[in-house]
Amino acid sequence: MLINVSVLCMACTSSKEETVKQSIEIPSRLVAVDLGLPSGTLWANMNLGATSPEEFGDYFAWGETTPKRSDTGKWNNYQHVNGTTESCRDIGNDISGTNYDAAHVKWQRKWQIPTAEQFLELMLLCEYELTSRNGIKGYLFTSNINSKSIFLPLAHEAGGVIGAFGCYWSSTIFEDDNGRADVFFMDEFNEVDVKSSSRCSALSIRPVCRP
Fold this sequence. Notes:
This protein is mainly beta. The strands form four sheets. The protein has a three-stranded antiparallel sheet with strand order 3-4-11, with no helix packed on it. Strands 5-6-7 form a three-stranded antiparallel sheet. A hairpin with a 4-residue loop joins strand 1 and strand 2. The chain is globular and about 45 Å long.
């Protein structure tokens, strides 16, 4: 169940700012989980666009705030490019908390796409194990500090193989290529790491916030 509220917010474009109508979609079961992390980061218990922890939620290209369909994770459908990776528009090295941040636009308040550093903190300060919830494969991250946990389903790229891998956007541009951004990668073979993906890829988002 989603709580929907229509609001007006400012969305940046390459040449000007324009007022667009956005919809705040707050899941009724949304919880900000305190894992006791030194940064103070609180992790959502579900993905953006989901209504429960095991749902994959919606898929987004990096820097876009409208969900993608399974056939739209391609450069010719990417909002911030003019046909090729070489012409990717610069929307910042870190889009967390900006009008390009789908979590911030959709859930408002202090919700944001995690930075690569926040994903690394989660990986380094939690024990993680491959498990399943209601038949959905994913990783349970349990804090080494206070034993609280969150479940991240293997939310494949839109149109990908279910249960094979999970890939989550960070808010951080990949430092060696403006056409890529950092992602949090997990697979069914116990690999968990921060990698990168093309900005046009349609991936999931697990929001974070600060108290």
